[in-house]
Amino acid sequence: MLMFFIADLARDPNLQAAFAEDPEHTMEAAGLSDPQRAVLRSRDPKRIADAVAREVERLPMRSPDPVVNWIGPVLHVTAVYPPAGVVGQVVKLVVYGTFFESAMQCSLVQGQTVIRGVVSNVVTGENSRMDVQFNLGNAPPDWFGVQARTQKAESTLPRAFEVERARVR
Description:
The chain has helices spanning 2-11, 13-21, 23-29, 34-42, 45-57, 66-71; strands spanning 76-81, 84-86, 90-98, 105-110, 113-116, 118-123, 128-135, 142-149, 154-164. The protein is built from six helices and nine strands; from the N terminus they run ααααααβββββββββ. A hairpin with a 4-residue loop joins strand 6 (118-123) and strand 7.
């Protein structure tokens, strides 16, 4: 498919070098059809985008989101509740996102400071969530990103959680 060839070309330096040296041979080796090669030869961004859009439209839909079908499931942190906690406390967050897996790790990150959380109750799939407990014992007051990780991917929602100073009574 043209869209996969373009995606590979964008991220593979060896394919880029081969294409620069002999575009015709590279397109043929990739199995592109004559019409697909003609589209690339045109160097017309609109024509190329239209051809890719037609390929996407023909994909079998397994999800209401066509991007998921094209590039596959993507781990993504979308929201956190509650958005703040106090230095010295233990706080339980609910982290929302997409395509979490059963074996998740979650941390609060700010510069060199990383506060690792204890993950429980992970709901996997397109509408994911997980419960994460953080000990804010010695955390510096600041805004932190919330970072979710699997063995294959990670996603960070920047400035998603604020560690607040303890109020003096």
